[in-house]
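Good morning C.,

I know you're traveling, so I'll keep this short. The sequence:
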Amino acid sequence: MNQIPLKPENERFTDEQWQAIFDQGDNLLVSASAGSGKTTVLVRRVIEKLKMGVNLDELLIVTFTEAAAREMKERIQEALQEAVNTESDPIRQQHFTKQLVLLPTANISTLHAFCLTVIRRYYYLIDIDPVFRMLTDETETILMKEDVWDELREAFYAENREEFFRLTMNFSNDRSDDGLTNLVFSLYEFARANPDPEEWLTKLSESYRLENGLADSDLYKTQLRPLILADMHQCVQLYEEMVQLAQEEGLEKMYDQVSGEKGQIQVIYEHLLQDQIPEAYSGLEALTFTTFKSSRKAELKERSAEVKELRDRAKKIIQQLGKNYFPVSPEQMEELTQKAYPLVKEMTKVTKAFMNGFSQRKREKGLLDFNDLEHFALQILTKKTDDTWLPSEASDHYRKQFKEVMVDEYQDVNQLQEAILYWLREPNETNGNMFMVGDVKQSIYSFRLADPSLFIQKYEAFSKTEGGRRIVLAENFRSRKEVLSFTNLVFEQIMDPVVGQISYDDAAKLVLGFPDFPETEQFEPEILIYEKEQEETTIELPVDDILEDKTEGELFMTGLKIRQLIDEKFMIYDKKMKKNRPIEYRDIVLLTPTKKNNLTILEIFKTFDIPLEMNDAQNYFQATEIRTMVSLLQLIDNPYQDIPLASVLRSPIVGLIEPELARIRLADRSHTYYEAVLAYQAEHTDELADKLNHFGEQLEIWRELARRSSITDLLWSIYYQTGYLEYVAGLPAGAQRQANLYALVDRAKSYEKSSFRGLYQFVRFIEKMQEKDKDLAEPVLASVDNAVRVMTIHASKGLEFPVVFLLDMTKQFNLQDLRKRYAFEEKLGAGIRYMYPDTRVLYDTLPYQAIKLAKQNKLLSEEMRKLYVGLTRAEQKLFIVGSYKNKEETLKIWSEVANQTSLVLEPSTRLKGKGSLMNWIGYSLMRHPKMKEYAEDTTVHNQLGQSESRFSITWMKQQDIVENRQSLASETKKELESVKVDQTPLQESLKARLAYSYPYKASTQTTSYQSVSEIKRLFEDPDDTSDSKLVWENNEKRRYNQQFRYTQDTLAEPKFLQKSQKISAASIGTATHYLLQLLPLEMPTSDSIRSLLEELVAKRLVDEKVAKKIDLSGILWFYQTDLGKRLVQHSELVKREQPFSMLLSADQVFDQYPNEDDELLIHGIVDGYIEFPEFIELYDFKTDYISNGENQAEIEKIVQKYQGQLNLYKKALSEALDKPVTNVYLILLGAKKIINLNK
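The tokens, ready to paste straight into the viewer:
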């Protein structure tokens, strides 16, 4: 240990923090409790290292997230800049300046990022291509895995080996072999968290041999035996206590009963101590619990109840003992475990084959995933000689380079990452250079295969100065003493090495570090409990006030409490302002175990007018708009799918109602729903058939588009054709829904950048994501400035909030993983359940038993640590929300611990399979003196807990919530009615503002772009024949909007709202122009025109129904006219469908326009013109319907309608080509007339 400088008297750091900053010469583990300022300590340690002459590139600083790395760099930069500004010594100042230059390239990053640096530098040591791409897209990863596995599985099936068939049968069902797929994928991922996955997999089968019997196996001796003996020892102690209590006169029968049972249990215990497992099993099988013989005497009732309570606890232990450890006889356990040996060997072989196949596929494609980075970096840092691992030249280089290796959030490191860090640090532990900081009580990332046991091992070893030293930062600078004492009260009773994996001793307890909070009574933690069971009442509740489930009840309680805090201006202390102020929405956070109820939170909090900021409003794939789009994509891929088809038909895209769906099914009851749709179309001609016909035609268009275009184009086509993007914008949370649909397009783009293509693969990917209960993150909208935040406990780690609501605390622990047919553990290996082929009954093998129990303990330990993280996010006020059947049930559950004597609750209490975080809290409170206020009828014989801890509990029924809501609404109304304001100044101000006229208003309201199609009606007025000035006469029949832009008076009804698709004149005109554009400039015939049209229909460029409406005779007539023949004759001079743009003064387009200097851009498309050397002839086709081609008045009206438009074309052409336009032909195909507008 080096000499630590004396801490100045005015230094704000604690003695422990000061030691953590300056101590060196050994490996150091800093156990930093929540709110203890670990990041500040880490940054200061870096700065002090630099002051001692170390350079930044001689430090490796590993963070858990990229955000943490950025924050670390920013803090170091601020500290360095301050050092440069304040340092008077020019040499030291130059040194600090150099560090600022080194900072951008300093090794301050996640371990993955550092591994990438190692690989790019030393790739040649492991023979990989330095030109690789990171496999970061989950879509590509999943699909590539599936492809490799499909090929591999087919190869294994082709080998026709009994071992593989048995393995498949053991983990699959009669519907599919997905169980084997899930096993292989899970085992592969788990193995890769190990430094040597192949070796770890190879050793898995060793624990199944049992060559010397059950009692001699390592798993039994190290895992099961200690747990069994601990339970039996507890049971014996309970019976000794019962015998003592039953010795009282009058309890002779009870004494005989419990004494007899104690003797049996003592014998079983002795057998287990001597490893006589068959005898112990026989004893347990023979053990029976007869009816309890209690005393009827009033004076002995209390003593009888005590004995009965102890006996019930002992019975539960014995029952769990049989269930957990002896589900079958020892002989049968040995037999089925040995029978499982070849299955585990085959499982290992298949998983290795997949691992190698997937690795080879990635190499072929030049891809690396994040786990590859760590494995390849470890390969680079090591070399193997005679089965011994030695440092490579790369390891030697980094060990010489790095004066210290600093690791933040060390509790979340896994075995593989630990191995990498070993080859980077100083190997001589007497001169260690590892600085590790973290808090094992906040290790909540087991789903990322974090291994908190690494921290715990060093925590225990370093306390004895074995291999390093331990420093504990216990002072909490975040929270009030009420939050800290409550947290200590709970965790000193529930956390120990058995559950929680570490003792919550005096070193682990939170100590108040920020004493500046004002003293007040109002900050005691509050527990809010919704009573699910409703009382019978004569009061009839409004339908809107009836709560559907416990979640709604909990959320209404929470909403009421938040409104109360806001409305009553609850005062909190502002650390920045250093004074009290009223609470704001931004001071509050809702922490949830999962995102499952987020959508319900949004809906309920709207009723309270409480603004929310929520990054994940709901599961992405569960969003209505995404479900609809996914169903439509599934339908386009394969229409013979009943559920997606019904979903789309029922959606706004088609808009059928349930009776219509039933009518369709009646058309064909025995086949698929798609065939029923086809049958209905064939048999009916009603409105429903029209809808189905229209949708069927559109579906075929999309199916064709999916075959020849990208998924991105397909999605945009769907959005455009259906108007669905605009439709969802009008729904609640419309902006989020639109963002979700845009995100689906982005996901499709990402997918198509991978090596996979096609709609089928994309749909398959989405289905796999849904099957595995995975999700895509919702796109995040802009945050709300003053809003209650909603996030998961995981997302809140590292953050702090003045007021915290922990929601859904009575949610049962998720132990789904324990119900699978396999279980994995880092040190114990893999356990499987064995299925007897004849009976197809599954049994636990010995390794499965041991690993399942270890895993259960780990899962519950992590739940406990999640609770710790949740409680310690609160700075000042803490609310814990849950629900029970009623108050009586609450107290009944909690009072199970009333007679437990030890401070730490019994493991059997904490390890309950149907437990919850709230139960743990309730157990911890039950023995507190304050519980007398809530549980008057419950006798607590051993009151424990901190007397200074304060809390309150509130139970609320549905009727209470309704009354509180009504009272809240009534008070709000009274407050609004009582407010009297002199509105005269406001009215005068408003009048002045409304009377103000902006001098350049016209310019701000004038479009800079105008299409000819929008302004063509300008020229329809029969009274205006002028072509010299383009003025719109203001009359009521034809008007421009007040923003100086010509628009259509009405918008077309969106297609998704149209009952049937009508063929518009515009559609016919567009198709006719398209046909004329593509028609070769040679003398056409009726057959050639029809042939071209059929080709356009076949290519889906022209709708078949529209094609039937095109007047082909008019086209044929035109080419027989002089003008038509001239086009054919001078085909090389003809230009067709030519776009143009021109600038016009705004006052030429808009009458009474005030600003002469303003211009706007006119854009249009000319049907065609013939450009002769000296002049131009312009022509334009029109398909307007004319009832009588000889009616001069009707012809004149048509001419007047288009004359101004063609004058614009004439002007544009003449100016662009610098030639006169001598003839302007208006070709009326319907009337078979050509009119020269220049004559």
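Safe travels,
E.
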